[in-house]
Amino acid sequence: MRSILRAGKVVSFDPAQGLGVIAPCGSEEHVPFHAQTVRFVDSVEAGQLVIYAIERTDAAVRAVEVRPA
């Protein structure tokens, strides 16, 4: 199930592994994401502001539909 769009900042992104982490605005929780979920650009980098949705599964929470802010 996906949530509404949220804003945050990319904390880290490893293009070789295709994995990254977003720090949501106003929250201390970090949310992981995969490069395949990045939209409208080829890549993102640490410090970049992004907009994303949250996808919750039984095992975890992850960011999806990650796009530049």
Number of helices: 0
Q: How many E strands?
A: 5
Q: How do the strands line up in the largest sheet?
A: 3-2-1-4-5
Instruction: Label the structural class.
Output: mainly beta
Q: Alpha-carbon distance between the termini?
A: 22 Å
The gyration radius over C-alpha positions equals 11 Å
Strand content: over 45%
- The H/E string reads EEEEE
Architecture blueprint of SSEs:
Elements: E1 6-14, E2 19-24, E3 31-34, E4 49-56, E5 61-68
Antiparallel strand pairs: 1-2, 1-4, 2-3, 4-5
Can you tell me about this structure?
The protein is an all-beta fold and 69 residues long. The chain contains no helices and 5 strands. The chain has strands at 6-14, 19-24, 31-34, 49-56, 61-68. It has a 5-stranded antiparallel β-sheet with strand order 3-2-1-4-5, with no helix packed on it. Strand 4 (49-56) and strand 5 (61-68) form a beta hairpin.
Quick gist of this model?
The chain is built from no helices and 5 strands.
Which labels suit this protein?
single chain, globular, mainly beta, 69 residues
